[in-house]
Structures are given as structure tokens and as C-alpha cells.
Amino acid sequence: MLAMLAVMMAVIVFTSVAHALHPPGNVETINPLTLHLEGEFMESNLGTALEPDGSVTVRLIAQQYSFVPNCLLVPAKTPVRFRLTSPDVIHGFLLVDTNVNTMIMPGFISEVRTSFARPGDYFLPCHEFCGLGHHGMWARVVVVPKEQFAKLSRTQRVGCEPG
Amino acid sequence: MNRVSRLALCHYWVAFGLFLPAVVLGAWQMLMRSPLPAPLDDPNTYYISMSLHGTVMAYVLTTFFVMGFGYAVTATSLGRPVRGMMAAWVGFALCLFGTLLAAAAILAGRATVLYTFYPPLLASRWYYGGVLLLVGGSMIWVVLMILNMLAWKRDNPGAPVPLAMFAITATAYLWAWSASGVAAELMGVILPAAFGATAQIDAGLARTLFSVTLHSIVYFWLMPAYIAFYTLLPAAAGGRLYSDKMARLTFIMFLVFSLPVGMHHLFADPEHGDGFKFLQGFFTFFVVLPTLMTVFSICASLEIAGRARGGRGLLGWIGALPWNEPMVLATGLSLVMLGLGGLGGIINMSYAMNSMIHNTSWVTAHFHLIFGGAVVIMYFAIAYEMWPRMTGKPLRSKAMARWQLWLWFLGMLITTIPWHIAGLMGQPRRVAIFDYDIPVVARTAALVDVSVLGGVVLLISAILLILVLLRSHLGEKTVERPLRYALAVVAPTRLATSLNGFALWNAIVLVLMLVAYGYPIGQFLFVLKPHSAPAYNVTRDGADSD
Amino acid sequence: MRVKKSDNISDRWPPIAWMSMVTLVAVAFVLGFLVLGRYRLYAPTVNVWVAMCRSLGLTPDLGAANEPQPTPQTPTSISWTTGTLAQISSGDKIHGAFIALNCTACHGEAGISSSDLAPTLAGIDAAATFKELADYRSGKRLWGVMNGISAALSAQDSADVAAYYASLPGGLPVLTGRSTPASGRTLRETDSAARLVFAGDPARGIAPCASCHGPEGYKLGAPALTSQRARYIERQTAAFAQGLRGNDINMQMRTIAKELAPDEMRAIAVLYGGGAPQ
Fold first, then answer.
1. Please, what are the domains in chain C?
2. From B367, B371, B379, B485, the catalytic residue
3. Which residues in chain C have their CB less than 8 angstroms from residue B261's CB?
4. Hey, is the C-beta of A119 within 8 angstroms of any chain C C-beta?
5. pLDDT tens string A45-68
6. Are B452 and B34 in contact (CB under 8 A)?
């Protein structure tokens, strides 16, 4: 019996090392009441940003009862860093058909890193009960081929809509 | 036994009496979230129903059942009346009053926070007060179990405590440790906000404190089922318990390893680094061990029984077992569900693998299968075993009881297997209305429909359960057959102190809890910068808060 | 069975238990903090000390918060801090009634408007009124006449007049968030307005309007809409959708309004405004 458990643990350790497979581990606090007034999550800074090293950072707010922006644009085959927070209650973040899955807590910033192998539309429901409108909280991530993703300046942010 | 019988029966009637309406709610919920039409189709009603269903199934059915079982076990295994009957009745009254208070708050629409009540969502103070009374009343039971065992040991120095009593006392200690999490959350974080003493809630601290309870509580629920496996089943099957020592070690391991592991419910949370997530995930592997040991020793005990009844060959003893006994049948069905549900649980706790299924329907399906299935079916079997002893009236009828158990087993598999698959397809949890036109939702439609069917089967089974118990209760009194606990193959005559008491194991739990939870909880108080969020009352009366 | 105390067998369990516990803790600690902590997706492998700090959560990814940003845009100057909420609940109705004598021309004698251009204010939540007056004052919401009027009101005056209007009966209902079971509030509902109000539209990420604006839902700062002037509701929704109005905290209304078609906005407005004189 111990051998069985040891084999499972070995698999976990191996994949954590070889593929850097971990659950989210970034512990960062923020004031939930002033997200719209100052700091990283002001509405002008939400959406997809291009980093100097070619990766993208997507910033998003989850609130009762929508994700803002509710449609996100990212390039395929690129490291993507999602940064998420909430101004009110606990929400969830799930990209269906991927391993991107985390909680969004008021007072904390959640960070998950991934990369999309293929272009396509990924649906994004909230999966933690957040109040009477919980079932309406769906958004989308649109993954486009890397070549089609515009070269943004450091202070440009994009969503799905043009302009 | 008569006074204890009445006490235990009162607990059981509350447990099963609230169980049936909760199953009705559950069946309705399955229908509501499916593509099929449902009556009273209103998302607000769904969330109220979920809060009630969850609170009753997770807190009320379980606590009352375990308490009643504990009193019955104390009296029958020690062979003498339970000490502290007055306190026991006070505890029962507190628990019942708390239950009614909480249920009333939910039905009034003032506590739609589901049974995990994650703040900053804040319900009415009456709901939390009710839950606190329920938990507090059960602490009287905890103290009584411990005191009764200690009194017996004092009166029988050096003698091995009967296994059933040892195990139920382990359960009591486990519950005391486990409940400390939710009690600290309620008294330290939630109730101050609910009473308006503070407007801010530390959501991370609340969730972490709750995680102390969230996993260990399932072992509180599960231990009576395992006690039945070890002490009632071998006798019902006509055999003996394979190993008394192994049984004691199993219960000790549950006490030790079910507590410092709650963070595997927080794998996806941003308020903890992955160091402690791994540490608690690692510990979680060791709570699998007692279950593996149980499966082994229970199969061994059944083999002893089967061969004693004339079974031959490698597997021939299985057929020779008395499957027409509800206790034996329930065990077989429970072990199947335990295997499936347990494998699912291993995936949930496997660190990064959790990201595949966190907060999807896989999780809901998992705990319905493992708790609603494997554990609750043993609650039924215990009820069928205990009712005739407590009332003096035989079970009417064993055939209906067998039907009930089979329907529960089949209904649970039909409900949860498609549900697991829907979870893997990314179906989110706790959703009242799905739009089945969304492509990723449309592909789960057929699976959800099958689960609805399973829910109906479960409802029929629940009705049968109540029918069997009612008919037995209203039947004719006959000669009483005392409860017979299983004898071990090698009956213990002397035991090491550590296998006869809990001082060592409580000390180990204390150290493990400090190691596993010391920093994770301490960081909220000493390390992290201010990060509290305002409380969000789910209802508001007038301009002033509730 | 009675056994003499001196017959106790030796108890090997304490050393076994403590040794096992120490071993498990040590292995878990080394693996979790010192080995696994060194590897992260799309980050360089770090040494053991950095790994430990990171695994404890002591070294978050702070660089992201400090990256260059576009020109900041804020929707409002109000945030729902304890101080703000305290100021709102300290509003004096009597003084508010006095101030409101100047509001009746557009908003009606009893706070019930008879004009499409001005909303009914009777019964409206005090926090909503307070915030809109602050936004008019700061220019975050533009409507000529209101910008001028709020410039003449202090924050305390706003709290007072908000308290007064919140206390007026006969207009908008008080939202309590309590619900009673009903039927026909799902996506099966054939009337599209009722469907959007009570069930929302998950495909477009639209939560039910009722979950914030009532009936049977509430959210801080979201005004009740039942019995509000239908054309006013419609115009404001369209304003959010077209970017003409942007004082909603964290874009919550703009995000939803842009998903609604104009005829849906009208139908929702009519459903809500049903009881009020049009």
C-alpha cells in the first residue's frame, strides 16, 4: 500500500520538477475597495498587455456579476500570465478545456500562467458561488494565431473589440 | 439500555426525518439545473434549496446520526448505562434548537450562503448562531464519550477498551479538533461582522480556518461507517474480525492524518504559497492508508466468514456470504462506492492535478459518491441493525431494506458517474441555470439528464428507507436480541497504552497542526499587509443592516 | 478481564509515532519548499533559499504591479469605504427635505417624476443618490443641469438629501435581497424582457438584472428599477452601452449594457417601469 502511494507521490514530484506543474502560489495583497481608483487594476489597465520578452499579461476583474473585460484576446503559443482580483466577494476562474483554474479573492491578486497551444474560443465561467447572479457570470478568451496578434506598445491594452 | 435507546432514537429520528426532505430538495435541484423543465424554476429558489440541502446533509443528518450512534455504542459496548444522560439531553436540545434556527433563517431567504458560507458573503446572524449551537451542542457529546471511556478504564484498569468504544471516542476527539476550525471562523471572523462589530472580513483567514474543518469533518462522518465495518459486519456475516490491533491503528491514523490536510481544499487559492499546499497535500496521502488497511482487513474478515460458511476456492467464499443480511449487502455496495469515490479523491488531492477539476462538477460528484454513497449507505445499514435492538421490534421487512439499499447504490452511481464526466468537461459548480446553447455546456446536456434519473431513483430509495423504519417502529414488540459486536480472531487481552488511549495521539495531532497550519493562519495576523474586504450581506432590511 | 497494572506490556508506539511524524514533516518540508519550490512555469530555476521564500508566499510577482500603464482613467471618485458609508448613513432627512424643495421642479413633488428626463427619486437607495451627486460634482457624470446643481451641494448636503429621498414612500421599492419562490424565471421564459431580468443570458455574460437591481436582489450602489421611468432606464442603459456614461465602478454596467440590443433595452425598461405613471 505504501508502495502504491509512493509511486503516486513520485509522479507528482517528477511533474512538478520537470514540467513546473504547480497549483497557484503567488501571494499578493491589494485593497479591494480602491481597485478603480489606483494601481494595477484601474479600468484603463485591464485587458491584454504585451511584455518586452514577448509574453502577454492579462488583467481582469471579477465582480458581482461579470468579468471585466468580458472578452479577452491572447496569442497562441505564447506564455500568458493572468492576473485577477475581485472588489467584492470570492469568485472562481475556469477556462473550460484547460488547466487554468483558480479562485479570485477580494484582497488578493491571483496569478496563473499558461500557454495556449491552439487558437480558438475558450469559455470562462465563474465557478464559486458569488451571489444570486452567479450563473450569469460567463466570459470568453479568444486565442488568435501568434502572427495575428498586434504588436502592442507597452501602454496599450486590448480586448476583443477592435479599437 | 432503554433510557439510552430513547436518547439514540430521538437523534436518529431527527437525522432521518430531515434527511427525506433534503433528498427531495436534491432531486429538485438536479432537475432545475438540467435542460428539462422543473416546477418553481427560479434561480433564487435554487440557491436557497442548495443552502438548506447542504446544511441538512452536511451538518444535521451527520451530527445527529453520529451522536445517537455514539450513545448507543457506549451503552452496548461497555455493557453499562451511559453516564451523563442529563447532559446528553441538554446537548440534544441545543443541537435541535440550533438546527431549527438555521433552517428558519435559510427558509426566510436570509442565509443564502450555501453550507460552506464563504465570507465576505454574509448571512443572517441567526443562521450562524444556529450552526454554532449545533456544533456547540455536539461538544457535550464529545465530552460524554471521552468521560465514559475514561470512567470505564478507571473501573477496569489495564483492560482493553472495547473496540467500538475506542473507535467512537477517537471520533469524538476528531470532531473536537475538526470543529475548532469552523468555530474559530464563526466566532472570530463571521459573527463579529454579522453583529456589526466590524464591517470588514478577512476572506482568506475565514477560508483557511474553515479548511481545518472541511476535510476532517468527512472523517467524522465516515468513522461510524467504519465502526460498523469493524464491529458489526463480521458478526452479521457470521465470521470474526481479522485483526483488532489493525482496527485500532486505523482509527488512530484517521485521528492523526485527517486534520493537518485541509489545505488540499485550498490548492487554487491565492492566499497561500505552494509550499504549505504541497506539505498538506503530502500529508493527505497518508490519510489514504487507513482506508486501504480497512478494505484489506474487512475483506479478510469477510473471507473468514465466507469460508466458515462453507465457501471454497479463491473467490468462492464471496458467494457463500449471507448477502441477504442488510449489513453485509450494504458493506459490499459501500466498498464499491468507496473504491470509485476514493480514486476520485486521490486525484483531487494530487497537487497540480487538482487544477483540472477544482470547483467543477467533478468535486460535487465526488463527495456525493463517497459521502452520500459509501458512508450514508452504511448509516442505513446501522439504522437497520440498531432499530430492532432499540425498539424491541423487528425490521419489517428485510426484503424492502435490501431493495432500498440496492436502489440507493444504483441511484448514486447513475447520478454521480455522468456528473464526474460533466465535471471533467468543465461544468462549473453551484450554478442554478445553464444555458444549454453554449457549446461547452450543450455537450453535458445528456449527462445531466441521466443524473436527473439517478436523483429520482435516490428519492425512491429515501422514501423506502423511511417506510421501512416507520413500519418497523409501528410494528409488534417481540423478544429483544441484544447487539452483538464482532469478536476478533485474536481477542486482545492486554494492549499497549497507546492503543488503549489517546494521549500520545492528541499530542501528535497538536504538533502536526502547528506545523501544517501555524504559518498559514499566522500569516494573516502577522505577515500579510491589510487586505480585508467589506462584508456583503445577502439581505438587507431597510436602510440599516440586519 | 482484570489485569494487574504491573502486567502492562511495553508500549513501543511513542517512539515509532514521533519518529514517523518527524520524518514525514521533514520530507514534506524539503520536497515542498526546497525542491519543488525551485521550479515555476516560465520562470528561471532558482536556488534553495529563494525557493523557500517563494513557496512561503513571501516574494510575490510584484513587478507586474509596477509596469508602465496607459493614462489612468477613473469612473468616479467614490469608493465604498467605511468612511463613505458612515457619511451616507449620517444623512439628516430634515435638512435633506429642505434642500429637496429645489429638486421638485424636475423630480416631482413627492419625488415621483412625471418627466422622462429626470428619474423618480422616491425610495431610491441613499448610497446610489450620494454617489451620483458626487459624480456630477466631480464631472465624472455629465448632465449640464445636474453638474451645476451638485456643485452647490457639499458632501454632507448630498448625504442629507439622499437620506430624505430614501425615506419617501410610493416610489421605488426598498431592495432587501430576500427572495420568495416563484416560477418561470429561467431561460425557458418566452418573454425576452422577463428572461433577461430574472434569468439573464449566460451566453453573453449577462447576469439577471434583478440580481442587483431587484426585485429580490440588491447590490450596493445599484438603484432599484421597479417603478422607475421606463424611458429614463432605457436612455441610461444606452448611455452605458455607447460610452456616453462611464461612472460605473469597475465598468460593471458598461460591460453588460454593450451586450444588449436596443430593443432589449427598451423591453427591459418597459418591464421595470410598468407600475409608474409614464
1. 14-56 (no CATH), 82-167 (1.10.760.10), 192-273 (1.10.760.10)
2. B367
3. none
4. no
5. 999 999 999 999 999 999 999 999
6. yes
Q: Is C58 in the A-facing interface, judged by CB distances under 8 Å?
A: yes
Active site residue B368: yes
Q: Out of B47, B352, B532, whose CB is closest to A22?
A: B352
Distances (CA, A) of B246 to B242, B294, B404, B455, C210: 8, 8, 32, 37, 58
Q: For domain B3-537, give the CATH number.
A: 1.20.210.10
Chains that touch B (3 or more CB pairs under 8 A): A, C
Q: Which amino acid belongs to residue B265?
A: H
Give, in degrees to the nearest 5, the angle at Cα B266 between B262 and B269.
Answer: 160
Interface contact flag, B118 A88, Cβ < 8 Å: no
pLDDT digits (tens, 9 = 90+) for C76-101: 999 999 999 999 999 999 999 999 99
Residues 24-53 of A with CB under 8 A from B: 24-33
Q: Interhelix angle for B203-227 vs B274-308, to 10°? A: 10
* All cell numbers assigned to B284: 493527505
Of B296, B533, B538, the CB nearest to A106: B533
CATH number of residue A66's parent domain: 2.60.40.420
Cell of C174: 426598498
What is the distance between the alpha carbons of residues C84 and B123, in angstroms, rounded to a whole number? 23
Task: Say whether residue C179 is in contact with chain B using an 8 A CB cutoff.
Answer: yes
* Domain range summary for chain B, segments of one domain joined by +: 3-537
Query: Quick check: bond before C215 cis, omega within 30?
Result: yes
Strand B121-122 to strand B536-537: parallel, antiparallel, or no bridges (unpaired)?
A: parallel
Enter the ipTM: 0.94
Supply B160's cell numbers.
Answer: 482493553
Q: Is residue A20 part of a domain?
A: no
Query: Searching chain C, which residue's CA lies closest to the CA of residue B257?
Result: C21
Q: Is the whole model's pTM more than 0.90, yes or no? A: yes
Q: What percent of chain B stands above pLDDT 70?
A: 98
User: Domain limits at A80?
Assistant: 25-151
- C60 close contact with A: CB closer than 8 A: yes
- Test the B interface: residue of A16, A82, A91, A94 with most B CBs within 10 Å: A94
Query: In b/e form, how buried is each residue of A96-129, taking b as 16+ CB within 10 angstroms?
Result: bebbbbbbbbbbbbbbbbbbbeeeeebbbbbbbb
